[in-house]
């Protein structure tokens, strides 16, 4: 039986990407356009938290200039899946 490897994609709002101290083996991965258009950002933060692979994408882009109604959610999900995410968590400030 093959072993399942959990990889969590996180789409966060403002502030989630500001404290990277909990992320080990941090690296920025450049991403391209998807069949659904461009994702919110051209880079995704990748690394591990407590031994679990994570990929973090800012919902509003690195410049925080994308309004909630303009976020290309399908492109963001496609990007995380292409990077290997098995699960996706989405946070909000509300």
UniProtKB/TrEMBL annotation:
Domain Nucleoside phosphorylase: 7-94
A family per Pfam: PNP_UDP_1
Record flagged with keyword Glycosyltransferase: yes
GO biological process, one term: L-methionine salvage from methylthioadenosine
A cellular-component GO term for this protein: cytosol
Gene Ontology molecular function: any one: S-methyl-5-thioadenosine phosphorylase activity
UniProt KW keywords: Glycosyltransferase, Purine salvage, Transferase
InterPro entries: MTAP (IPR010044), Nucleoside_phosphorylase_d (IPR000845), Nucleoside_phosphorylase_sf (IPR035994)
PANTHER family: S-METHYL-5'-THIOADENOSINE PHOSPHORYLASE (PTHR42679)
Name of the molecule in the record: Nucleoside phosphorylase domain-containing protein
The organism of origin for this protein: Oppiella nova
